[in-house]
Write a structure and sequence with these properties.
- The complex is a heterodimer of chains A (about 120) and B (about 110).
- Helices cover about 0% and strands about 50% of the residues of chain A.
- Chain A is built from no helices and 11 strands.
- In chain A, the strands form 2 sheets. In chain A, strands 2, 4, 5, 6, 9, 10 and 11 form a 7-stranded mixed sheet that branches.
- Chain B is mainly beta.
- Helix content of chain B is about 0%, strand content about 50%.
- The chains are: A mainly beta (about 120), B mainly beta (about 110).
- Chains A and B meet through strand 4, strand 5, strand 9 and strand 10 of A and strand 6 and strand 11 of B.
Chain lengths: ~120, ~110
Amino acid sequence: DTGVSQNPRHKITKRGQNVTFRCDPISEHNRLYWYRQTLGQGPEFLTYFQNEAQLEKSRLLSDRFSAERPKGSFSTLEIQRTEQGDSAMYLCASSSTGASSTDTQYFGPGTRLTVL
Amino acid sequence: AQSVTQLGSHVSVSEGALVLLRCNYSSSVPPYLFWYVQYPNQGLQLLLKYTSAATLVKGINGFEAEFKKSETSFHLTKPSAHMSDAAEYFCAVRGTSYGKLTFGQGTILTVHP
């Protein structure tokens, strides 16, 4: 068990560019969550998957944001036409729906995005 | 809908003193409650969770929290602070056994020698 990993850890981009982040969950975890955390705030929910199905999306997830989990393993979060307001830490978490599970979410180290 | 209020964005204690971080929740259904800790430039680590079993929950690193329905509270305590406890702490709530967490704004704990 190597934990949840996220790449890259840091991303600096210019306004208007597209960026893509990757999350690799704990192996065999079937749920995967994306959150966004801005400075001085708690994480805010963006979206989550069970296997490859995207089950819920927050209204925070504008049409510039898209998330995928094509094979039910890793996930990508893409932001198109980035804006300075997109600057934040993007956190990924995974959990298991096994019989003894209480859907405890384990978080990765995050990807810090800076939009210039 | 669920929400969380963490009273006090900054708490400062001396090493060896009691740590008390306050969390009040709002939920229309019996809640699931969590405390996470975040060290600088890192993700969140689960400290403890309440899932409708015992109201006093013990977690890692000597932390514990008590669920009080009448007060809609889930305060985090530790009898004796250690320098390594300095971090930001988040309380979170969920209204179902799975799904998204709703976090409070966090409390930064500073521990003085």
